[in-house]
Design brief:
single chain, alpha/beta, seven-stranded mixed sheet, 28% strand, globular
């Protein structure tokens, strides 16, 4: 993945969707949302990431469908997956969900540049809305494709059958 994106946490998800307090930036050209609790420090007048580990997307399911539609999202990155209502919104909006695999998230640090921040003074580092420039970020597993198929859901019956077979033997 490469380009401009943004990340937000719980309070940012709630503000625009429930309280109708809109972002002070456009999401039109920032249509990649990363679910992450970053650690960012101010170093010589610039923001610097010191930790960047995607967090569980399912925590944001309650706001998922509206966020996908209202923010024009085309991709969400986070651990785990999303549920049916968000999957439907993603299908309608041609949006995917991807989860990082096979990489230590700290290896992402040199691939991400902090471009701007909003609501830092009010909400602090983890809850602020950060604007990022990213390059060659990955690898990722697309667990929800733009057709609404959920890879993890498709694995569940296979895993259940294997579990039952091993328990019986």
């Amino acid at each position: 993945m490469a380009g401009a994106d943004f990340w937000i946490q719980s309070k940012q998800r709630i503000r625009p969707v429930l309280v109708r307090c809109f972002f002070p930036f456009s999401t039109k050209h920032r249509n990649l949302l990363i679910h992450v609790g970053p650690v960012v420090v101010r170093d010589s007048g610039k923001w610097r990431l010191t930790a960047f580990n995607p967090t569980s997307s399912i925590r944001f399911e309650k706001w998922g469908p509206r966020a996908v539609k209202e923010w024009g999202l085309k991709a969400i990155v986070g651990k785990t997956t999303m549920r049916e209502s968000t999957m439907l919104a993603m299908k309608e909006s041609i949006c995917i969900h991807a989860t990082p695999v096979g990489i230590t998230p700290s290896l992402f640090l040199d691939k991400i540049e902090v471009k701007d921040v909003y609501w830092f003074d009010e909400l602090g580092s983890i809850e602020a809305a950060w604007i990022l420039g990213i390059r060659e970020l990955g690898p990722f597993l697309v667990d929800i494709d733009y057709n609404g198929r959920n890879y993890f859901d498709e694995l569940d019956p296979i895993i259940d059958a294997n579990r039952k077979r091993h328990i019986e033997n």
